[in-house]
């Protein structure tokens, strides 16, 4: 009976992982990111990435994450206790079996399109009532489509864009937006489309990735080469 208890409880853990992963996707998180973060929180591994901010900065995901951390700590204690008592007959196998059955049922219910749409809309309304746009991460605000691109483009000394005006360059280009021009300590927003570009300017742009890379291919390649050289230099210093 002890082995059966452990098997059932591990099944519960796997089902909980899937349930919380599905709930995370209802809040707009991609499934592969959601599952990784769920496993990380459940196991208490402390594995942190930039993607963990998508959980911490979101009120609904943060509450689900708190449950996972507590459930993970409780589950570890249960499994250790079960293994230490593997020869004992005092296992509540039937009761834990009922709990596993209920969780499996919840998993199937959550996978139905009707429930998925209803919960997604509910989470969205809750977020709109209690969460300001400024509290969302950059990824959630800007990068909502696969082709969305947010990039800061530096203008080097040989850039063909020096002396040009972005408003004139972007007249015939769709789905590319200039957010601001950074010139030293000066931030140019209001006149960003009518200001002549200078060497050393940084242009913060958002829009279609292919369109931006096509227009600023030379600047982006130059910047990438400079970043690689800097990384090699730092590696040589540390070695």
Short summary:
The chain has 239 residues and is α+β, with helices and mostly antiparallel strands. The protein has helices at residues 2-26, 31-43, 53-56, 59-84, 93-110, 113-130, 138-142, 166-169, 209-215, 217-238, and strands at residues 148-154, 176-183, 186-188, 202-208. The termini are far apart.
Count of individual helical segments? 10
Count of distinct strands: 4
Strand line-up in the sheet with most strands: 1-4-2-3
Structural class: alpha+beta
What would your notes on this structure say?
With 239 residues, the chain is α+β, with helices and mostly antiparallel strands. It folds into 2 domains: 2-134; 148-238, 2-Layer Sandwich (Alpha-Beta Plaits). Helices cover 59% and strands 10% of the residues. The chain is built from 10 helices and 4 strands, in the order H-H-H-H-H-H-H-E-H-E-E-E-H-H. It has helices at 2-26, 31-43, 53-56, 59-84, 93-110, 113-130, 138-142, 166-169, 209-215, 217-238, and strands at 148-154, 176-183, 186-188, 202-208. It has a 4-stranded antiparallel β-sheet with strand order 1-4-2-3. A hairpin with a 2-residue loop joins strand 2 (176-183) and strand 3 (186-188). Helix 1 runs antiparallel to helix 4 and helix 2 (31-43) packs across helix 4. The chain starts with a helix and ends with a helix.
């Amino acid at each position: 009976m002890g082995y059966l208890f452990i098997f059932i409880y591990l099944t519960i853990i796997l089902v909980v992982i899937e349930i919380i992963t599905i709930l995370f996707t209802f809040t707009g998180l991609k499934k592969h990111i959601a599952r990784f973060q769920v496993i990380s929180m459940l196991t208490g591994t402390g594995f942190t990435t930039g993607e963990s901010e998508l959980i911490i900065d979101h009120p609904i995901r943060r509450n689900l994450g708190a449950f996972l951390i507590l459930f993970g700590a409780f589950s570890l204690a249960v499994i250790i206790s079960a293994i230490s008592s593997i020869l004992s007959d005092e296992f509540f196998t039937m009761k834990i079996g009922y709990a596993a059955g209920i969780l499996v049922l919840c998993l199937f219910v959550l996978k139905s399109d009707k429930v998925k749409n209803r919960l997604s809309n509910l989470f969205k309304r809750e977020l709109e009532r209690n969460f300001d746009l400024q509290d969302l991460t950059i990824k959630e605000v800007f990068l909502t489509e696969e082709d969305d691109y947010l990039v800061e483009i530096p203008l080097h000394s040989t850039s063909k864009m020096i002396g040009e005006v972005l408003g004139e360059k972007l007249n015939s280009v769709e789905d590319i937006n200039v957010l601001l021009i950074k010139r030293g300590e000066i931030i140019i927003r209001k006149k960003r489309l009518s200001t002549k570009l200078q060497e050393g300017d940084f242009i913060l742009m958002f829009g279609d990735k292919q369109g931006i890379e096509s227009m600023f291919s030379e600047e982006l390649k130059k910047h990438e080469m400079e970043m690689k050289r800097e990384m090699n230099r730092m590696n040589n210093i540390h070695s």
